[in-house]
Write a structure and sequence with these properties.
The chain has 193 residues and is of the alpha+beta class. It has five helices and seven strands; from the N terminus they run H-H-H-H-E-E-E-H-E-E-E-E. 34% of the residues lie in helices and 28% in strands.
């Protein structure tokens, strides 16, 4: 039956588009597309990918407030005397949140973005990093990393998510990257559960 075969082919193309969008870092577009097709998300992504999509896009939304911290939401802001670096911090639900921003001149923005996204490269510019390796291999701009750093008095052994979003067409107008600790209660921080 040709109409049925055409419908299956169209569905496969749509599924491929979702995967391509994620690989291109357009997490926010995929979330919008899936919300427009309410109730059909499981048709396009497996449960682990849906969980990952929700975590990354939620982190993106949370970060927008952090990028413009206000005293009304409990942020305390300071500017460093030298170096032109701005800091803000707050305590929420027994968790301290810290935001730092700085402008760097004379750098290639894309090289900087790749250097921040691929933590195995960070030892090249952050000499305190002794070891960094990926704990998962999704290749979708969201990776779980183990990072060992030399710290005052010993070594730090950390696990963190590094998520990247193409937000160039969003109001933020930027390539977005966030490195953050996995949720404590998440039994599978990589989103594979």
């Amino acid at each position: 039956d040709q109409p049925a075969a055409a419908a299956v082919a169209a569905a496969e193309v749509e599924d491929l588009d979702v995967t391509c969008e994620l690989r291109a870092g357009r997490w926010l577009d995929v979330r919008r597309q899936l919300r427009e097709r309410s109730g059909e998300a499981s048709r396009y992504l497996d449960p682990a990918s849906l969980k990952r999509l929700e975590r990354v896009t939620a982190r993106f939304e949370e970060s927008l407030e952090e990028l413009n911290p206000s005293t009304a939401s409990g942020w305390m802001a300071e500017t460093a005397d030298s170096g032109g670096m701005d800091f803000a911090y707050r305590l929420v639900n027994n968790t301290i949140q810290v935001m730092c921003s700085a402008v760097f001149n004379g750098f290639d923005a894309l090289h900087a973005f790749v250097g921040l996204a691929e933590w195995e490269l960070c030892g090249q510019f952050n000499k305190s990093v002794r070891e960094a390796h990926s704990l998962d291999d999704t290749g979708f701009g969201d990776t779980l990393w183990r990072v060992v750093k030399q710290a005052p008095g010993g070594y730090e052994d950390n696990v963190l998510h590094v998520s990247c979003v193409d937000a160039l067409d969003e109001p933020l107008g930027a390539l977005w990257i966030s490195a953050y600790a996995p949720a404590e209660l998440d039994t599978d921080p990589g989103g594979k559960a």
